[in-house]
Design a protein that fits this description.
The chain has 769 residues and is mainly beta. Helices cover 6% and strands 52% of the residues. It has one domain: Beta Barrel (Maltoporin, Chain A).
Length: 769
């Protein structure tokens, strides 16, 4: 394992690289308003405002006393962002991957805080908010994006303004709003592994958006549509077919009314996607640096999501009163080849139903020396989940189980920034939250056919196939806490420095995937104080940061060092099981500390050339372990020596954007190279994700015809292999010496490792007016 001293040296090297000399910015904002020249692509990386502070007015990201990476619509277009996952390669200490076993299910991690599960009852560590609406669980989050206004990535606990379950950070996705003038944008693209013979097929996308006034200055509209047909990137060596096929459709509409000081905006989004199950690689058979896979079950998934939001804003007195109501209805089915082998070893299907409503009411006020936001929040969610398992080598019977959960949250918060002097400000906030969960769980065990979603699975009595086991349980629990924040901000000529302490909580809850009733009730429940639920996780973050920008805006450098302590860390302990394929206990296993450093910089060296760079360094350690996470039968120094899952020690990247003015047209070139270190995926460190160096390149010709552009692009051009997980199985290996070791290239027993796409090359045409 690398030592932290060497990592600090790399960090200093990266910071020194970012502090290289630069020349003056070409034009300031006032000059740009007067010029009649065409827009410069580099201007997209000028002033970027953010909404994540929930103040009366949006703020320049350089003025916010927090670690935020933000993208406006222009910079998202310059970076050719088509899904949230691609932003992994644009920010330090950020991983926005999907789990891979269920397409579209988020597996986000920020600053080493993340989960490694598709179990819908587990609350995320990274909260995702779409148009201000919190998404209650990770299903249906990592899908295609279009017509975006902005994306903001907030690193570190955000409990005061965004509530519990955002201990790692928050991702704010803001879709496009209706416009004052009639506008439209249409896009068509095709990409695929064209230069990698024998691997998969093409990926086609078309989308369009129109927007404008229905009644001038009073009633505005927006309509959008999106269609993607993916023929499947991978070649299944079992039968030579393409694996990873998908068909996705999105319809979106918005209306905005402006009535004096009152604005009301409603948005509705319909999303449907279906296709193949996971492209699982068993790393007991195939090298983890290859895209080889051989599965006998293609599998499938089918997701339908309805989302809606209603936002109202009223300027009243010294501030703005904002109310955001949100609704979401999600349904999905999946079938996957979990053993990832060319024979029937372990196949599993799921069905999931989720619906939620939420409402936030806040009042943001601005006075001479004080910015104050107060508000309240309500959230109600229902989840039902059924899982089936067929394991012919282990049992002739089908496993059925899962759970239902009702989840209610109420909260109240206040956040203030008081300017003691023109330079010094005190930042303080406090949130009170209470969460209640009521669950009914059916153990995933051999039993007569049933469906939790349809209400036919029992949660009491004994299993008729296994009379020594109970069927399940019904239970409820609640958690309430105060989440504080306190900090200082000092602003001076070229920038600011800040320091703050903040606390966040991740709610306790229930496990829908219990595969051994007797072990759970006789071993795990006593370990949790007799409760069927696991307890909440507490996170404290101490951060010192600075943001610097030259007067002409040509150079910016943002950096932070932080220490994060986690008490009662919630972990999903994954272990291969000779009776159920995989067992997954969710427990409060340990206390831990994470130290980190991160920096990102932007440097405009001429009118036409912009460089970017970022670096993130993390060092992690367990302070106390209360569960045998190594799996050797005892709790000792071997447990303390393990790496925390989802913590890459290094992330670093460099990039550039060049805008070549040809008079009546231009060519915009972009390249970004990002490295992410290897990291443990399971607590026992037998599962891990190898390091990857990702290179994205894009060249766009803005033609003489106004609004028409053509692009060629490449994604992951170095063909790096990465997977959504690395879960141990009792099938498929070993090919090494038969001894399971941390970070073994060929794991004994094999794995479920759902692959992500490798190299893709494509072309795109856009037209906007």
């Amino acid at each position: 394992m690398k030592n932290f001293a060497s990592l600090r040296a790399i960090a200093l090297l990266g910071a020194g690289m970012m502090l290289a000399p630069q020349v003056a910015y070409a034009q300031d904002a006032d000059q740009e308003e007067e010029t009649t020249q065409r827009d410069n692509a580099l201007d997209a990386f000028g002033v970027i405002v953010v909404t994540g502070t929930k103040t009366k007015d949006a703020e320049n990201v350089q003025d916010v006393a927090a670690a935020v990476t933000a993208f406006n619509s222009e910079s998202l277009e310059a970076l050719k962002v088509r899904d949230v996952q691609s932003l992994t390669y644009s920010a330090p200490n950020v991983s926005l991957d999907q789990i891979g076993t269920s397409r579209g299910t988020a597996n986000f991690s920020i600053r080493g805080l993340g989960i490694n599960s598709s179990i819908p009852s587990i609350d995320p560590t990274v909260g995702v908010f779409v148009d201000g609406v919190y998404l209650g669980f990770n299903g249906g989050v990592v899908f295609d994006l279009f017509d975006l206004d902005s994306v903001e990535i907030l690193r570190g606990p955000q409990g005061v303004l965004f509530g519990r379950n955002v201990t790692g950070g928050a991702v704010l996705i803001n879709t496009g709003n209706p416009t004052n003038e009639f506008t439209g944008k249409f896009r068509a693209s095709v990409d695929g592994p064209f230069v990698d013979g024998g691997r998969g097929g093409a990926n086609y996308t078309v989308s369009g958006v129109v927007s404008g006034p229905l009644v001038e200055d009073t009633l505005l509209f927006k309509l959008g549509g999106y269609y993607n047909k993916d023929e499947g990137y991978f070649t299944n060596l079992f039968n030579g077919s393409n694996q990873g096929r998908a068909d996705t459709k999105i319809l979106r509409g918005a209306l905005e009314g402006r009535f004096g000081d009152l604005m009301v905006r409603g948005k509705v989004d319909y999303f449907t996607s279906d296709g193949d199950g996971p492209a699982g690689q068993n790393r007991g058979l195939f090298r983890r640096d290859s895209f080889d896979l051989s599965i006998d079950e293609r599998g499938n998934y089918d997701n339908t999501v309805w989302t809606a939001s209603l936002t109202s804003e009223l300027d009243i007195g010294p501030g703005t009163l904002t109310n955001i109501f949100g609704y979401r209805d999600y349904s999905a089915t999946t079938l996957g080849d979990i053993d990832s082998l060319p024979f029937f070893g372990f196949h599993s299907g799921t069905e999931t139903e989720q619906d939620q409503i939420s409402n936030e009411l806040r009042y943001a006020m601005s006075f001479d020396n004080l910015e104050l936001t107060v508000g309240g929040f309500y959230f109600d969610q229902s989840i039902a989940y059924t899982e089936t398992r067929d394991l012919p080598p282990l049992s002739p019977l089908t496993f059925y189980g899962g759970g239902t959960q009702d989840h209610e949250v109420i909260g109240a918060f206040a956040n203030a920034k008081f300017n003691v002097t023109d330079a010094l400000a005190i930042i303080a906030g406090l949130r009170w939250s209470k969460e209640e969960k009521a669950a009914g769980v059916t153990y995933v065990r051999p039993r007569p056919m049933c469906s939790v979603v349809q209400g036919t699975c029992p949660t009491s009595g004994t299993n008729p196939f296994i009379p020594t086991e109970n069927n399940g349980f019904v239970d409820d629990n609640s958690w309430s806490n105060w989440s504080p924040k306190f900090g200082l901000q000092y602003e001076f000529g070229p920038g600011q420095v800040y320091a703050h302490w903040t606390r966040g909580y991740r709610s306790g809850g229930y496990n829908f995937r219990i595969t051994n009733a007797n072990v759970f009730e006789n071993v795990v429940v006593p370990a949790t104080g007799g409760n069927f639920s696991f307890d909440e996780e507490k996170v404290d973050n101490y951060e010192l940061g600075g943001k610097f920008q030259t007067d002409d805006g040509a150079f910016t450098l943002n950096a932070a060092i932080y220490m994060t302590t986690i008490e009662n860390m919630q972990r999903e302990v994954n272990q291969s099981s000779p009776t159920a394929g995989v067992s997954q206990f969710i427990l409060n296993t340990a206390d831990a500390t994470i130290f980190g450093f991160e920096a990102e910089s932007r440097m405009r060296v001429s009118d036409s050339l912009l460089f970017t760079a970022n670096v993130g360094i993390i060092d992690d350690k367990y302070d106390e372990v209360r569960f045998d996470i190594s799996g050797d039968g005892v709790i000792n120094d071997a447990d303390l020596a393990l790496r925390l899952p989802r913590v890459p020690e290094i992330t670093a990247g460099v990039g550039f954007i060049h805008d070549w003015d040809l008079g009546n047209s231009s060519i915009v070139s972009r390249a970004n190279l990002q490295y992410r270190d290897e990291f443990a995926y399971t607590d026992n460190n037998f599962g891990y994700i190898q390091d990857i160096t990702n290179l994205d390149v894009n060249v766009t010709w803005n033609t003489p015809m106004e609004g028409l552009a053509f692009s060629i692009y490449g994604k992951n051009l170095l063909d790096g292999v990465q997977a959504g997980g690395d879960t141990q199985l009792p099938f498929g290996g070993p090919l090494s010496n038969g001894v399971n070791r941390p970070f073994d290239f060929f794991p004994a027993g094999g794995t479920l490792s759902p692959l992500s796409k490798g190299r893709q090359v494509g072309a795109e045409a856009t037209f906007e007016f």
